Amino acid sequence: MGRTRRTKPLGIGVPVAAAAALCAALLSGCGGAEEKPDLADQDRFLGRYVTLLNASDEPGLADLLRGHPNGGDDARARIAAYGGQDWDVTWKRTSEFPDVWSVRLTGTAGDRERPVEVVETVNREDGHWSLTPLDGVVPKPSGAADTTRPK
């Protein structure tokens, strides 16, 4: 990576810089501290998600996904895609943005132990966990860019 050299703008002396630093410190204290997410609660959410999928419990899954307006449609699509497969999975999560995680579920499905590898986007909004709806569940606005990878 290249390096850039910072120079002090003309006309800013120590008193102005000190005042700016004091204002920044005061502003960072306003609004309270950001609440840290409870990742153990996210683990419970994901465990319940897998349990509901394994049971093909569409009403239960719709209740779990109530965090977004298309939760019922998304539950139906998820049961059709993943339901009743007897997943035995673990997950790893990464996050580059506050309250949004990419979660990779890996493991096996059923007696034949078919491999499972699913990546979900888990977000936290208003204190509730939710999943980004599966492709095709939420209609795209006309002219919207496609965010799925070409096959």
Structural commentary:
The protein is α+β, with helices and mostly antiparallel strands and about 150 residues long. Helix content is about 35%, strand content about 25%. The protein has 4 helices and 4 strands, in the order H-H-H-H-E-E-E-E. The chain has helices at about 15-30, 40-55, 60-65, 70-80; strands at about 85-95, 100-110, 115-125, 130. The chain has a 4-stranded antiparallel sheet with strand order 1-2-3-4, covered by helices on one side. A hairpin with a 2-residue loop joins strand 3 and strand 4. Mean pLDDT is about 80; it is low at about 5-10 and about 20-30.
Topology overview:
Elements: H1 14-29, H2 39-54, H3 58-64, H4 71-82, E1 87-97, E2 100-109, E3 114-125, E4 128-131
TL;DR of this structure?
With 151 residues, the protein is of the alpha+beta class. The protein is built from four helices and four strands; from the N terminus they run ααααββββ.
The average pLDDT score comes to: 79
Largest sheet: 4 strands, antiparallel
What is the 3D form?
globular
Spatial order of strands in the largest sheet: 1-2-3-4
What share of residues is helical? 25-40%
Number of strands: 4
CA radius of gyration: 22 Å
Distance between the termini: 32 Å
- By DSSP (H or I, 4+ residues per run), the number of helices equals 4
Query: Spans of 5+ residues with little confidence (pLDDT < 50)?
Result: 3-12, 18-32
Portion in beta strands:
15-25%
Order of helices and strands: HHHHEEEE
Give me the secondary-structure category: alpha+beta
